[in-house]
């Protein structure tokens, strides 16, 4: 019984913090709405165009601002109060979902409007992502950071399991537009949670004073710190070609398995369910560092390859559950490695580069994955993602070993 209590305490350690508990609850509501919108938006684009390439393009538009302006978003996060910045940006995200919902329920939505709103949401994300990720440390402190990051990943993926299932029901009962409207409403929960936080209990990083060259300073800092640069380069490759599930899975559901929105929802839910289990494991027993991240990337690649060759839908769903578990392990390990390794004055900029590597790589990888899925099938697109994970893991281990071999030998008897 004591051992079970210890495991439970280690797994949910960060939730003993009242501020994080309140924030976690608000995020739980909002994330379900976000996944509902992701499913509905993907299906809306397929209804309007029937094109996997168009689906890849809308995802690219949503992430292009992160690629173009993401590093500056980190500069802003280092300069401003992160909580107040997040309140404004989360409210704006709710407004964008409301507009898309109203356009859809009134049957006036067109493809260019979906493109525009996706781009505006991406502009919001390039400032919100680094602020949100750096803010976690200000709530829980270094000791509970890895646990909090892992539980956040569990939350995202639990929502991935629940949100698509709810979306399928809502789409069948009321149509795509209701999903967007419910997502708009869900942002109220996260804004309220941020407003109600006990500000006195936070440990904010001192705001960086505005000065010329701060973006260049952040890039230089990462460039001369291999412990930060290697994980970022790994995520750039894996993020571009492996994390394109919202592009690949709809095509896989429709073309490979002959299903509709419900099959796509099941696939997404299977990944989310697996990620919950994987995230809880990482929360209790996860490690950080380049070697741990390389191992995680290799496992991720092998499991994506298994999903690429699964012969039946049931085996595909089982494989995707394992893919979900591995994906959250890779994400949480990389995120924690960067936050714990970054100087507090640089944390916003470092996490902005993490967002650029993950989301900003999608404008490149999204259309590629969409093209491969459309021309060669969803299985080929998954296999491409698996290869990217294995290449990233191998290159990172090679660099780490060369750095270890180049390190000077300790002098016997030296003080």
From TrEMBL:
Gene Ontology MF terms: transmembrane transporter activity
Signal peptide stretch: none
InterPro entries, alphabetized: MFS_dom, MFS_trans_sf, TM_effector
Domain Major facilitator superfamily (MFS) profile residues, every copy: 184-415
Membrane topology, from the record: Multi-pass membrane protein
Assigned keywords, A-Z: Cell membrane, Membrane, Transmembrane, Transmembrane helix, Transport
Segments passing through the bilayer: 20-46, 52-72, 93-115, 165-197, 218-243, 263-283, 290-311, 317-338, 350-373, 379-400
Location of this chain's protein in the cell: Cell membrane
GO (cellular component) term, any one: plasma membrane
Stated name of the protein: Predicted arabinose efflux permease, MFS family
Organism: Rhodococcus tukisamuensis
